[in-house]
């Protein structure tokens, strides 16, 4: 009878996991290109040891998939889906080391029910490979520490290095490992183990391409990621908007039940450590060592700094395993019901675009914009195209158009990795251009009536053309202002 119940429970858990994943897979062909997809696809089409704003792992993955399956929106999304599916499988393996079979299955269902897994499955970001290599790192470290399998120190070092080559926040892996060993009475002796230091040295060695690219480029990426943010944090300006915005993001990504479980056990363990000086047993301490620094650390910044919704994602891996220790069947069922409702709403939004998105962070309209821009180039021959919104419009147009599309470095502004593509902008001297500018708060189809003053410094004449209006389901959903600019003058 117990075996029969175990089989039924196992099938039920697998059914939920497969159900959520099949839903995501079915939705993939209906997803349009996101600006992040296009930007990191640009990484892959311009191979480099690293890149200005992130290491290159997501770009390499998209390049591999495009070489095998060809260039299409679906292939980009499919790459994200496959890598995230590997993360899900790896998570279950990791959870099985810490939880009973029943609780591991609950954690398994908890993970796949979240919105953050859907985001990773649909949208190309450095977090997609980061979560995979983060999880694989923890599997290897578990094997090395708790099962005393020496070779897994080697594998762990490689995995931690690959995680860093995905995103810089992976540095927390090494910090979490050392913190665990410091606070663990049983395993503190490993701090002097040559295997630990070989693991750490190897993890740094694997990241050599990122360091070498930064060395070649005056450490531009490290300065970009660290300098500006450190300056903002040290200003110490309190903002309730930042704090409640972060809570809202986490409620959305994890859904309310899981988020509240996170808050509950975090409070419990911190209170026990601070007031009773009790350190959890080794395996629980291991999980907390890779949860607390990222989850609590970033939350402590939220009153003074805008913490992006994806920064806490690595903490979810061990956080959900910890949640699996506490969550009841009733709460799990509530989580599933809420998740189903949210995913149905997401599906309806993707299929029918029920709620207009007042932002360029949307999957709607980019292909149509590219087609209309090509038509403009026929009307205005020998023109180049550029935009000025960091990367979004330029990256999306580059994905769909044969001709190169430029970013705001055309008008002397920093342009993220567009500045490092090796373009010689002086060859554009004396040419005319089409400047595309998104109207994020689209209210009508009228012209803007003016143009950005900075254009006057680089072009002789700027003429506003009829805006490009994008329609979906017979509704006007996006608007782009368009300017014809003559006689470009490149300035260093």
What's the topology here?
Layout: H1 2-27, H2 35-45, H3 57-69, H4 73-96, H5 101-113, H6 115-122, H7 127-146, H8 151-164, H9 171-183, H10 194-206, H11 208-216, H12 220-235, H13 240-254, H14 256-275, H15 282-289, H16 292-301, H17 313-326, H18 329-352, H19 366-379, E1 383-387, H20 392-400, E2 405-406, E3 432-438, E4 461-472, E5 475-486
Which features characterize this protein?
492 residues, alpha/beta, five-stranded mixed β-sheet, 5 strands, 8% strand
Describe this structure in words.
40% of the residues are buried. A five-stranded mixed β-sheet has the order 2-1-3-5-4, with helices on one face. 60% of the residues lie in helices and 8% in strands. The termini are far apart. Helix 4 crosses helix 6 and helix 16 packs across helix 17. By secondary structure, the protein is an alpha/beta fold. It is globular and about 75 Å long.
Please give a quick description of this structure.
The protein has helices at 2-27, 35-45, 57-69, 73-96, 101-113, 115-122, 127-146, 151-164, 171-183, 194-206, 208-216, 220-235, 240-254, 256-275, 282-289, 292-301, 313-326, 329-352, 366-379, 392-400; strands at residues 383-387, 405-406, 432-438, 461-472, 475-486.
Q: Estimate the global geometry from the Cα principal axes.
A: globular
- Radius of gyration, whole Å: 25 Å
Main sheet: strands, sense, barrel: 5 strands, mixed
Percent in helix? 55-70%
Distance between the termini: 78 Å
Structural category: alpha/beta
* H/E element sequence: HHHHHHHHHHHHHHHHHHHEHEEEE
């Amino acid at each position: 009878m117990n075996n029969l119940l175990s089989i039924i429970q196992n099938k039920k858990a697998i059914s939920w996991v497969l159900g959520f994943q099949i839903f995501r897979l079915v939705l993939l062909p209906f997803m349009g290109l996101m600006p992040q997809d296009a930007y990191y696809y640009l990484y892959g089409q311009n191979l480099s040891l690293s890149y200005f704003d992130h290491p290159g792992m997501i770009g390499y993955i998209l390049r591999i998939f495009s070489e095998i399956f060809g260039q299409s929106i679906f292939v980009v999304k499919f790459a994200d889906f496959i890598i995230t599916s590997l993360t899900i499988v790896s998570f279950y393996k990791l959870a099985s080391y810490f939880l009973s079979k029943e609780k591991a299955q609950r954690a398994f269902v908890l993970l796949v029910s979240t919105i953050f897994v859907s985001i990773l499955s649909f949208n190309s970001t450095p977090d997609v490979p980061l979560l995979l290599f983060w999880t694989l790192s923890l599997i290897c470290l578990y094997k090395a520490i708790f099962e005393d399998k020496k070779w897994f120190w080697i594998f762990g070092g490689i995995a931690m290095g690959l995680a860093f080559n995905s995103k810089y926040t992976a540095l927390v892996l090494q910090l979490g490992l050392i913190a665990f060993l410091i606070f663990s009475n049983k395993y503190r002796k490993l701090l002097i183990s040559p295997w630990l230091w070989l693991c750490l040295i190897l993890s740094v060695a694997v990241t050599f391409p990122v360091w070498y690219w930064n060395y070649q480029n005056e450490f531009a990426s490290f300065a970009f990621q660290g300098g500006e943010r450190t300056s903002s944090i040290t200003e110490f300006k309190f903002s309730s908007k930042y704090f409640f915005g972060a809570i809202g993001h986490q409620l959305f990504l994890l859904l309310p039940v899981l988020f509240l479980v996170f808050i509950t056990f975090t409070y419990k363990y911190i209170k026990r450590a601070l007031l009773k000086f009790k350190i959890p047993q080794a395996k629980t301490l291991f999980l907390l060592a890779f949860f607390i620094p990222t989850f609590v650390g970033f939350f402590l910044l939220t009153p003074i700094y805008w913490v992006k919704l994806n920064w806490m994602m690595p903490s979810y891996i061990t956080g959900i395993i910890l949640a699996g220790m506490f969550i009841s069947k009733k709460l799990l069922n509530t989580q599933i019901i809420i998740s189903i409702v949210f995913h149905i709403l997401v599906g309806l939004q993707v299929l029918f675009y029920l709620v207009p998105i007042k932002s360029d962070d949307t999957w709607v309209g980019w292909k149509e914009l590219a087609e209309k821009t090509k038509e403009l180039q026929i009307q205005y021959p020998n023109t180049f195209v550029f935009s000025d919104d960091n990367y979004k419009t330029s990256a999306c147009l580059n994905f769909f158009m044969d001709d190169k599309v430029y970013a705001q470095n055309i008008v002397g502004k920093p342009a993220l990795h567009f500045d490092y593509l090796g373009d010689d902008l002086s060859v554009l001297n004396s040419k005319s251009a089409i400047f595309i500018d998104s109207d994020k708060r689209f209210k009508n189809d009228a012209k803007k009536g003016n143009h950005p003053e900075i254009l006057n410094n680089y072009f002789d004449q700027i003429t506003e053309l009829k805006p490009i209006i994008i329609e979906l389901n017979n509704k006007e959903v996006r608007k782009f202002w368009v300017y014809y600019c003559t006689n470009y003058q490149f300035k260093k």
